[in-house]
Protein backbone atom coordinates (compact mmCIF):
# COMPACT_ATOMS: atom_id res chain seq x y z
CA UNK A 1 0.00 0.00 0.00
CA UNK A 2 1.35 3.40 -0.87
CA UNK A 3 2.00 6.02 1.77
CA UNK A 4 1.80 9.80 1.60
CA UNK A 5 5.05 11.44 0.58
CA UNK A 6 6.45 14.94 0.70
CA UNK A 7 9.12 15.85 -1.85
CA UNK A 8 11.21 18.87 -0.88
CA UNK A 9 13.86 20.18 -3.27
CA UNK A 10 16.97 22.04 -2.20
CA UNK A 11 18.68 24.00 -4.98
CA UNK A 12 21.38 26.58 -4.98
CA UNK A 13 25.02 26.99 -4.19
CA UNK A 14 26.55 25.19 -1.24
CA UNK A 15 29.70 25.93 0.72
CA UNK A 16 32.76 26.63 -1.45
CA UNK A 17 34.97 24.35 0.65
CA UNK A 18 34.55 20.81 -0.73
CA UNK A 19 34.91 19.04 2.63
CA UNK A 20 32.25 21.30 4.15
CA UNK A 21 30.01 20.75 1.10
CA UNK A 22 30.25 16.97 1.46
CA UNK A 23 29.75 17.16 5.24
CA UNK A 24 26.55 19.21 4.77
CA UNK A 25 25.25 16.69 2.23
CA UNK A 26 26.08 13.77 4.53
CA UNK A 27 24.27 15.57 7.35
CA UNK A 28 21.22 16.03 5.09
CA UNK A 29 21.26 12.34 4.13
CA UNK A 30 21.47 11.36 7.81
CA UNK A 31 18.63 13.69 8.80
CA UNK A 32 16.42 12.42 5.99
CA UNK A 33 17.01 8.82 7.08
CA UNK A 34 16.20 9.70 10.71
CA UNK A 35 12.91 11.25 9.54
CA UNK A 36 12.00 8.22 7.42
CA UNK A 37 12.85 9.89 4.12
CA UNK A 38 15.53 9.57 1.49
CA UNK A 39 17.40 11.60 -1.05
CA UNK A 40 16.10 11.26 -4.60
CA UNK A 41 18.65 9.82 -6.97
CA UNK A 42 18.70 12.76 -9.36
CA UNK A 43 20.64 14.58 -6.65
CA UNK A 44 24.29 13.96 -5.83
CA UNK A 45 24.64 11.30 -3.16
CA UNK A 46 27.50 10.89 -0.73
CA UNK A 47 26.51 7.58 0.87
CA UNK A 48 29.12 4.88 1.25
CA UNK A 49 28.24 1.82 -0.82
CA UNK A 50 27.08 -0.05 2.30
CA UNK A 51 24.88 2.87 3.38
CA UNK A 52 23.40 3.13 -0.10
CA UNK A 53 22.44 -0.53 -0.34
CA UNK A 54 21.02 -0.55 3.20
CA UNK A 55 18.70 2.25 2.04
CA UNK A 56 17.87 1.00 -1.46
CA UNK A 57 17.35 -2.78 -1.04
CA UNK A 58 20.31 -4.45 -2.74
CA UNK A 59 18.84 -8.00 -2.75
CA UNK A 60 15.78 -6.78 -4.70
CA UNK A 61 17.97 -4.86 -7.14
CA UNK A 62 20.30 -7.84 -7.72
CA UNK A 63 17.35 -10.17 -8.30
CA UNK A 64 15.93 -7.74 -10.85
CA UNK A 65 19.31 -7.44 -12.61
CA UNK A 66 19.58 -11.25 -12.79
CA UNK A 67 16.01 -11.61 -14.08
CA UNK A 68 16.77 -9.27 -16.99
CA UNK A 69 20.37 -10.47 -17.57
CA UNK A 70 21.77 -7.09 -16.56
CA UNK A 71 24.38 -8.20 -14.03
CA UNK A 72 27.30 -6.92 -16.13
CA UNK A 73 25.90 -3.38 -16.28
CA UNK A 74 26.91 -0.75 -13.71
CA UNK A 75 24.72 -0.77 -10.63
CA UNK A 76 22.49 2.12 -9.65
CA UNK A 77 25.06 3.00 -6.99
CA UNK A 78 27.81 3.11 -9.63
CA UNK A 79 25.70 5.51 -11.67
CA UNK A 80 24.77 7.97 -8.92
CA UNK A 81 27.77 8.06 -6.59
CA UNK A 82 29.96 11.13 -6.59
CA UNK A 83 33.67 10.50 -6.86
CA UNK A 84 35.66 12.24 -4.11
CA UNK A 85 37.72 15.18 -5.29
CA UNK A 86 41.46 15.42 -4.97
CA UNK A 87 42.65 17.33 -1.92
CA UNK A 88 42.60 21.05 -2.60
CA UNK A 89 40.73 20.78 -5.90
CA UNK A 90 38.05 23.44 -6.16
CA UNK A 91 35.00 22.58 -8.31
CA UNK A 92 34.24 26.30 -8.69
CA UNK A 93 37.48 26.90 -10.58
CA UNK A 94 36.26 25.19 -13.75
CA UNK A 95 36.70 27.45 -16.77
CA UNK A 96 33.21 26.59 -18.01
CA UNK A 97 31.43 27.09 -14.67
CA UNK A 98 29.82 30.33 -15.86
CA UNK A 99 28.01 28.26 -18.51
CA UNK A 100 26.08 26.46 -15.78
CA UNK A 101 24.67 29.69 -14.31
CA UNK A 102 21.03 30.43 -15.13
CA UNK A 103 20.09 31.58 -17.77
CA UNK A 104 23.47 31.57 -19.51
CA UNK A 105 23.65 27.78 -19.89
CA UNK A 106 20.24 27.59 -21.55
CA UNK A 107 20.93 30.51 -23.86
CA UNK A 108 24.30 29.02 -24.82
CA UNK A 109 22.61 25.70 -25.61
CA UNK A 110 20.00 27.42 -27.79
CA UNK A 111 22.71 29.30 -29.69
CA UNK A 112 24.62 26.08 -30.37
CA UNK A 113 21.44 24.25 -31.41
CA UNK A 114 20.53 27.09 -33.79
CA UNK A 115 24.01 27.34 -35.33
CA UNK A 116 24.25 23.58 -35.86
CA UNK A 117 20.72 23.25 -37.23
CA UNK A 118 19.79 20.75 -34.50
CA UNK A 119 17.02 23.05 -33.33
CA UNK A 120 14.87 22.00 -36.30
CA UNK A 121 15.32 18.20 -35.97
CA UNK A 122 11.81 17.86 -34.58
CA UNK A 123 10.40 19.25 -37.83
CA UNK A 124 12.08 16.46 -39.83
CA UNK A 125 11.19 13.56 -37.54
CA UNK A 126 10.78 10.39 -39.63
CA UNK A 127 7.90 9.09 -37.53
CA UNK A 128 5.79 12.11 -38.48
CA UNK A 129 5.89 11.27 -42.17
CA UNK A 130 5.26 7.53 -42.11
CA UNK A 131 1.95 6.20 -43.35
CA UNK A 132 0.07 4.10 -40.84
From TrEMBL:
Lineage top rank: taxon: Eukaryota
Gene Ontology biological-process annotations: steroid metabolic process
Any one annotated GO CC term: membrane
GO molecular function, one term: Delta24(24-1) sterol reductase activity
InterPro entries the UniProt entry points to: Diminuto-like
Protein name: Uncharacterized protein
